[in-house]
Input
Amino acid sequence: MTGEVGIDDDFADAGTATFDRERDLSIRNNIRDLIEQMTRAIGRIDEGNYGTCERCGNPIDRKRIDALPHALLCLDCKRREERVR
Ligand SMILES: [Zn+2]
Output
């Protein structure tokens, strides 16, 4: 091992740290969105509305609830929302 290799390693680490920071921020936003959805889903359980679509009021498919317990929208409304974005 020479000193030069050590310097190269430091540069490589700096680059990785920047990438990790951006990735972490993006993951952080995703988790925040999830927490918000989960909080709203819990609120709907308290209101007795859990399992119905927040937008159209139709029952959310049972398989969807099993896969995504925090789902607030039925599949139709979710697809519509994603198309608008
Ligand atoms: Zn709906």
